[in-house]
């Protein structure tokens, strides 16, 4: 298996977001009264982390709450995936695209009170580069040298230009930890962020408290309680009974209950969530492009999006928020008759396939697929499994026909340029285009190369992208500044306030 972290990170964090889409789109920030600096913000989430060691444990559930709140990197990203400074006050990139120079902000301290210097940054990044067991290792593979010429400056030199490098530093690969710290990160922390870990009631909630000595603008609330509620109906009930100030991943079928109550504002946010129907390209009959194309043509994507509740159709591996996006709807329009023809040409007028899906995704998507496939002579058996079983059978052993998960991480097109990834897709031309896109010094050129590669992947029918997810968030009127976009992968709460 490749050490690339993107695939697994995306998958694990989307327990409920796969079905959580639609509602009215009202801007956040309809707070009433003055913000209460001593307030506790109760946020309903779906998937709880198994532990808090973000350095050694993959999963969007970790990145969602820990990055920017507890741990920080030199740079971070906004909800619309734009790169911005964080621990670094400024940075520059050399004309040849090889040298990145960062200047640290003043007054940064870890939660134990010790000051942060370039020594901590260098040791953190060097550890990720050297240790294959650390998350983000692959993202730093092209780093030639990491240096701290003085306590306030970090210089990173690449062996070759990489358009994705700076963005990779906004993720787990770029997080900064104290040099020599022995904190057991599985259930404790020592970050630099605006919140500290207070308590973790496993199976129930995680509580953060404001770090009063934070180097930047202090958090707007004194405490955040993440309440983990894996059942959609239970989440709505908790919101209606006043237990929550914010409910994320609202099921669109339940959203009317929150709207009609008059207690909540609902927003619909964009994401990079790709609802991916994976084909095992290395296993018959999915190794036949005619079979893969037939399956895509059999799916009524517009009807599927309507059944899910919102989001938008997506016919390629790159969503709108990522570089290289192109509308590829013409590649696989709904055409059941052509699907039947292709299956007949491939010798499969009748075909039995199995869909392996983590059981937290519900039944909406499988039901649509079973119905659509049946119309073209494909009998689909749905194998709903616990997530650990999915990881073992599908992700690790590649023992599957079709699979469905929500890949949430931005800029993860590289999975299709990795023949060892669980898709089993191996196209040297795609791999070269992707490598050239990363090496391009000009962003526009890089994006054009990515678009070319993505079109090839879609034309190869390496997978089907059922939809690009959206996410519904409900919050009480006193909440202001709560993020709307990309909250399944990143939830920066520093600027959130709660009024009386």
TrEMBL record:
<protein>
    <submittedName>
        <fullName>ABC transporter substrate-binding protein</fullName>
    </submittedName>
</protein>
<dbReference type="InterPro" id="IPR039424">
    <property type="entry name" value="SBP_5"/>
</dbReference>
<feature type="domain" description="Solute-binding protein family 5">
    <location>
        <begin position="83"/>
        <end position="405"/>
    </location>
</feature>
<dbReference type="InterPro" id="IPR030678">
    <property type="entry name" value="Peptide/Ni-bd"/>
</dbReference>
<keyword id="KW-0732">Signal</keyword>
<dbReference type="InterPro" id="IPR000914">
    <property type="entry name" value="SBP_5_dom"/>
</dbReference>
<dbReference type="Pfam" id="PF00496">
    <property type="entry name" value="SBP_bac_5"/>
</dbReference>
<feature type="signal peptide">
    <location>
        <begin position="1"/>
        <end position="30"/>
    </location>
</feature>
């Amino acid at each position: 298996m490749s050490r690339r972290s993107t695939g697994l990170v995306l998958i694990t964090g989307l327990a409920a977001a796969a079905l959580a889409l639609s509602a009215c789109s009202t801007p956040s920030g309809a707070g009433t009264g003055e913000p209460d600096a001593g307030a506790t913000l109760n946020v309903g989430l779906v998937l709880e982390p198994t532990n808090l060691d973000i350095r050694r444990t993959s999963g969007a559930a970790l990145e969602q709450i820990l990055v920017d709140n507890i741990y920080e990197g030199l740079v971070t990203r906004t909800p619309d995936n734009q790169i911005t400074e964080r621990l670094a006050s400024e940075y520059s990139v050399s004309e040849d695209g090889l040298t990145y120079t960062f200047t640290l902000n003043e007054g940064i301290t870890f939660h134990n009170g010790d000051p942060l210097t370039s020594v901590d940054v260098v040791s953190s990044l060097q550890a990720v580069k050297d240790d294959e067991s650390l998350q983000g290792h692959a993202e730093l593979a092209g780093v030639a040298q990491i240096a701290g010429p003085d306590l306030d400056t970090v210089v990173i030199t690449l062996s070759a230009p990489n358009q994705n490098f700076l963005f990779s530093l906004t993720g787990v690969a770029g997080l900064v930890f104290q040099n020599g710290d022995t904190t057991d990160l599985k259930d404790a922390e020592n970050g630099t962020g605006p919140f500290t870990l207070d308590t973790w009631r496993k199976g129930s909630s995680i509580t953060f408290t404001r770090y009063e000595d934070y180097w930047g603008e202090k958090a707007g609330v004194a405490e955040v309680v993440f309440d983990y509620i894996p059942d959609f109906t239970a989440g709505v009930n908790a919101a209606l009974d006043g237990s929550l100030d914010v409910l994320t991943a609202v099921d669109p079928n339940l959203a009317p209950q929150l709207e009609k109550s008059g207690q909540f504002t609902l927003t619909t946010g964009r994401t990079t969530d790709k609802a991916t129907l994976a084909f095992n390209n290395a296993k018959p009959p999915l190794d036949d492009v005619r079979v893969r194309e037939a399956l895509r043509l059999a799916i009524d994507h517009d009807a599927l999006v309507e059944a899910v509740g919102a989001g938008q159709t997506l016919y390629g591996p790159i969503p709108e928020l990522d570089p290289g996006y192109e509308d590829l709807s013409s590649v696989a329009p709904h055409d059941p008759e052509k699907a039947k023809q292709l299956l007949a040409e491939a010798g499969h007028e009748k075909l039995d396939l199995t869909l392996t899906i983590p059981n937290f995704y519900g039944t909406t998507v499988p039901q649509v697929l079973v119905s659509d496939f049946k119309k073209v002579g494909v009998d689909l058996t749905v194998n709903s499994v616990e997530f650990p079983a999915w990881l073992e059978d599908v992700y690790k052993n590649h023992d599957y026909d079709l699979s469905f998960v929500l890949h949430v991480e931005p800029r993860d097109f590289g999975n299709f340029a990795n023949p060892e990834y669980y898709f089993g897709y191996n196209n040297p031309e795609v791999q070269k285009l992707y490598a050239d896109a990363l090496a391009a010094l000009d962003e526009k050129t890089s994006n054009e190369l990515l678009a070319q590669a993505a079109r090839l992947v879609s034309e190869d029918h390496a997978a089907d992208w059922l939809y690009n997810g959206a996410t519904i968030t409900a919050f009480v009127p006193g909440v202001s500044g709560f993020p709307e976009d990309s909250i399944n992968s990143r939830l920066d709460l520093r600027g959130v306030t709660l009024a009386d």
